[in-house]
Design goal:
237 residues, alpha/beta, Undecaprenyl pyrophosphate synthetase, six-stranded parallel beta sheet, 43% helix
Length: 237
């Protein structure tokens, strides 16, 4: 059976869900947060060590300001209201992405939750906020170039391991499984380097309708795959 250390989800469809219900788009984001809680609880029960959720891309700033402001208001509320739940369940929360464009209140709530939950061992819940993979790779390249310019690193020493270490992932393993909801079939600038050998699972469900059972179905699909990592599968028997 395939071992799953890290699952990542591109949470798509909040706005479409709200529009189909005849509601304003922010209601879809509100329903999406409820889905985050359901799936986080499911990940704990299923023994997934690391779960990364694509919450807000660097391109999402192009959306109407009212929607963006409401989304971050909901995000701050989520951080505050679920803090005790995270701690009680041994869940560590952290975030990847830029922070300089977040409001002081949102950034403060995020950093406080990160600090309080840093010893959680049951699940590492990572939120990609104001995140774009191309920008992450560019920043990693700049750091490596600066090290080389200072004479701390030779160009021929730059390999996959050093590039991976320069990214925001830190000690988190690359995702084994990437799930995208709402029927879309693209990465949308999410974990481009880290997704090199990830398995993909596409769900037709809009994110607010996504349940723990859907996560379980994605895991069953993952475990049914033959992962070769560029090699030839070995015959059994």
């Amino acid at each position: 059976m395939n071992i799953l250390q890290h699952a990542a989800i591109i949470m798509d469809g909040n706005g479409r869900w709200a529009e189909r219900q005849g509601m304003p788009r922010w209601r879809g984001h509100e329903a999406g947060i409820a889905a985050v809680r359901r799936v986080t609880e499911g990940a704990c029960r299923m023994g997934i060590p690391t779960l990364t959720l694509f919450a807000f891309s660097s391109e999402n700033w192009k959306r109407p300001a009212k929607e963006v402001n409401m989304l971050f208001s909901l995000f701050r509320r989520y951080l505050v209201e679920t803090r005790k739940e995270l701690l009680d369940n041994g869940i560590r929360l952290s975030a990847i992405g830029r922070r300089d464009r977040l409001s002081a209140m949102v950034r403060g709530a995020l950093e406080e939750t990160e600090q309080l939950s840093c010893h959680g061992l049951r699940l590492h819940l990572r939120l990609a906020i104001d995140y774009g993979s191309r920008a992450e790779i560019i920043e990693a390249a700049r750091r490596l170039a600066a090290d080389a310019a200072r004479g701390e690193l030779r160009p021929d020493q730059i390999d996959e391991e050093r590039v991976s270490a320069a990214l925001q992932s830190g000690d988190v393993p690359d995702p084994d499984l990437i799930i995208r909801t709402a029927g879309e079939r693209r990465l949308s600038n999410f974990l481009l380097w880290q997704a090199a050998y990830a398995e993909f699972h596409f769900s037709p469900k809009l994110w607010p309708d996504f349940e723990a059972a859907d996560l379980e179905a994605a895991l069953e699909d993952f475990h049914s795959r033959t992962r070769k990592f560029g090699a030839v599968a070995c015959a059994i028997g």
